Amino acid sequence: MRKAIEIKNLSFTYPDANPALTNISLDIYEGESVGVIGPNGAGKSTLLLHLNGLLNENSSIRIFDKPISKKNIAFIRKKVGFVFQDPQDQLFMPTVYEDVAFGPINLGLSQGDIDKRVNYALAEVGLTDKKNHSSHHLSLGQQRRLSIATVLSMSPEILVLDEPNSNLDHSSRRHLINLLKNFNITKIIATHDLEMVLDLCSRVFLLDSGMIVREGKTREILSDSSLLNAHGLEAPRSILPSG
Predict the structure, then answer these.
(1) Residue 56 pLDDT greater than 80, yes or no
(2) Range of the domain at 33
(3) How much is the mean pLDDT over the chain?
(4) Domain count of the chain?
(5) Higher pLDDT residue, 225 or 17?
(6) Where are the alpha helices (DSSP H) in the chain?
(7) Which CATH number does the domain housing residue 176 bear?
(8) Does residue 145 lie in a domain region?
(9) Inside any domain, residue 24
(10) Angle separating helix axes 111-124 and 96-106, nearest 10 degrees
(11) Has residue 135 been placed in a domain?
């Protein structure tokens, strides 16, 4: 399999802060769904923000064998779509259509191609009937799906999601999980929702204090209650032995 993401010895420190990441090395392969788990402050969001140059250009990271650099940043951001934890960070146009069209417009596409991409992305997330609505009048679950649509309209090959289930009710959470299951692209998901990781991810990276503590198959990692408890996490109920 082709490597979609390759990271070698990535370290990062915020100004006037302790190190946020220390010697992170990992490979993610094309088509994989990978979970990034860990307690609050582990470095999950910081790691994700590096993956398309949002936080920092860094030669420690390669996307489809190209380093993240000024020369490659347009290529990187076409390949890697980032969905923020808070939809308000992603949705800023007057209508749903305009939010989804924003990226394709900036690619210089024709109006016909823009319409095709918008219609495709909205259909994928089940929001076609909301095209002319205000993004900010949607429910939180709908805003999360709309945020994904704004990324899908750019035709990425890698989808990066930061806490996509945060504050969603049960129905919206289930809808989102089923939606993500249908996307046949590389996915990296940082989340506290270990049941979702169990549903979606074949591999897991456990972070704590900015370092990778353990990496392995999802069921193997999430079945290790002692490991998870040591890092402030609880094994999913569905994976624990009955009785």
Answers:
(1) no
(2) 3-87+157-239
(3) 92
(4) 1
(5) 225
(6) 44-49, 73-79, 96-106, 111-124, 140-152, 170-181, 194-200, 218-222, 225-230
(7) 3.40.50.300
(8) no
(9) yes
(10) 130
(11) no
Find all residues with CB under 8 Å of 143, minimum gap 6, and list them.
87, 88, 91, 135, 136
pTM of the model: 0.92
Spell out the residues 6+ positions from residue 130 whose beta carbon is closer than 8 angstroms to its own. Answer: 96, 122, 138, 142, 146
Contact partners, residue 98, CB within 8 Å, separation at least 6: none
Q: Is residue 144 included in any domain, yes or no?
A: no
Contact yes or no for 57/73 (Cβ under 8 A): yes
- How far is Cα 180 from Cα 112, in angstroms, rounded to an integer? 27
Please indicate whether residue 238 or residue 105 has the higher confidence score (pLDDT). Answer: 105
For residue range 103-138, list pLDDT tens digits in order.
Answer: 999 889 999 999 999 999 999 999 999 999 999 999
Closest C-alpha among 209, 243, 215, 225 to residue 11: 209
Expressed in angstroms, the distance from the first to the final Cα of the chain is 41
